[in-house]
Amino acid sequence: ENTDYFLILPHVNKIFLEIKKYGSLVRVIAIVFRGEKVDLSCHLLCLRQMHVSMATVSLHSDHFGFPYSTADIMCSVPPGCGAPNYVTITSTAIDNDLKVDLEFLEVKNQKAKSHSFLYNVTSCFSTMYNFTNVLQLVQSLEMLQLLGVNKVAVYKTNCSADVQRVLDYYTRKGLVVVVPWSLSKYLNVSRRAKPDQDPGDIHYFGQIPALNDCLYRSMYRSKYVALHDPDELILPQTVGSWLKLLEQLERKFGAERCYMFQNNWVPSEFFLTPPAPKTLPQQDQWQNVSGINILAHLYSEPIKPPFGYRNFKTIVNPRGMFAVTVHGVLRAKRVCVWVDRKLARMYHIKSRGPTELKPKQMIYDGRLLNYSARLSSAVNTVLGETGLLPGNSL
């Protein structure tokens, strides 16, 4: 349904709608125009009986000043309707004669779980648009598997043909699920984080509703959910995998937490060799593959507090979260905790543009080299099997 006030698109692969039955409420994730307040009604279908109730709209506080915002539309489940099967939302003023034309969506997450999940860790990539960075995508997906990730949800607007080939490959392997994210058909999406950088209806291709959709999709499928971009890599410093790291953090802080990881900028403009006796693995075979080679960038910018604590990303227990955003969590059962950088930190490997930093000011961090042999072998295999790396290049 597309009105001036709210947007739910069940006919586009249900990309904006994930409904969670939570106690006596059904939660609908929607996109709402902040400049107007409209009374909404919930139409719940329970055992072939229609129940209509008033909806409550809760805007997410993070909208970065854009006119449209992510919102939770909450529907009270009336007595006698223990488990609603389908729901739709309308303006309360809608004519009764039109209700036969309404499209209903299935209520998901009906059965709560606290153990025995399908996946240990799911990563959420949102949103992929005009994406051509083949090499870094393959390296990131292979690194995530080395770290213990079982599933990666990619919210995709568009990408190059070679990137699509990679996504198709990982989809066949069972690692990746691609969620078509075509919000730009319905709103004037901004390509930047703030309106003064690129005006539009909604922040950054609708990144925030995509993240919340991924959270609720993964609620009872995955023990943990990581919310980050393909060019962001969270690396443990004392153990080899996320699972071992998260076990440590749960023992220290308890369950149903979210963990915040300090951001370290790694500009791809700097090609600096590691200090002796460290050496880089052979990488010549990748020179004709488009994208950034993360193994060639092992130097980060100096951290200047408090800026090092901005642009962080999180790994969460999804069952303890109610609403998430780009950098952090908006509503949760328990407060988020910072992870000491000596235990784990995030590396954001991307082009930073013009800089006044000199090579001698950059800080070497060779943690990634601990994975380099296994990573290089895995990347070569993927590039070979996808036809992106000629056989005689290996």
From TrEMBL:
The keyword Ion transport does not apply. Keywords: Glycosyltransferase, Membrane, Transferase, Transmembrane, Transmembrane helix. It comes from the Eukaryota. It is an enzyme of class 2 (transferase). One of its GO terms (cellular component) is cytoplasm. It is found in: Membrane. GO terms for molecular function: glycosyltransferase activity. The keyword ATP-binding does not apply. Pfam families: Glyco_transf_92 (PF01697). Its EC number is 2.4.1.-. Its main location: membrane. It is a single-pass membrane protein. Belongs to the glycosyltransferase 92 family. This is Glycosyltransferase family 92 protein. It comes from Poecilia formosa (Amazon molly).
